[in-house]
Amino acid sequence: MTPLLYALAAGLVMAAASIVEKLGLTTTQPYAGLFVRSGAVVLFLGLSAVPFARYADWSGFTTRAVICLALGGLLAGLVAHFLYWQCLKATSPDYAVPIMVGASQAAVVLLSIGILRARVSVGQLGGIALVILGIALIQLMKPR
Hints:
- The protein is mainly α and 144 residues long.
- It folds into 2 domains: 78 residues, no CATH class; 52 residues.
- It is built from 5 helices and no strands.
- The longest helix has 28 residues.
- It is globular and about 50 Å long.
């Protein structure tokens, strides 16, 4: 699969997850919901460890890799998801998701410049400007 297809598939799965999560949050508080979500992930990973263990190559793990992956999990799987669910509980997915995705896209490019020393094209900078404009338009046009 090409990176584009992986990204499109991830986007579709995240869209479906957003709708399902909104339904689950109607009677649940976001922080409590994180326990259920995280428990389901741990359970699935535990059950899949035996049949899919051959796909896990552990040889590339270093202390730095473990720390970075664990920190990424805490940031994305706990902190960001909690903040996203707080927003999702208060509004609809068609408002919350585009803003979250747009903000994350712009932040990834900017953080990549600062931390990874990535080279950014004029097109990417234009894309960031359009994303920020899109977020502003979504906020301005939000139904009251």
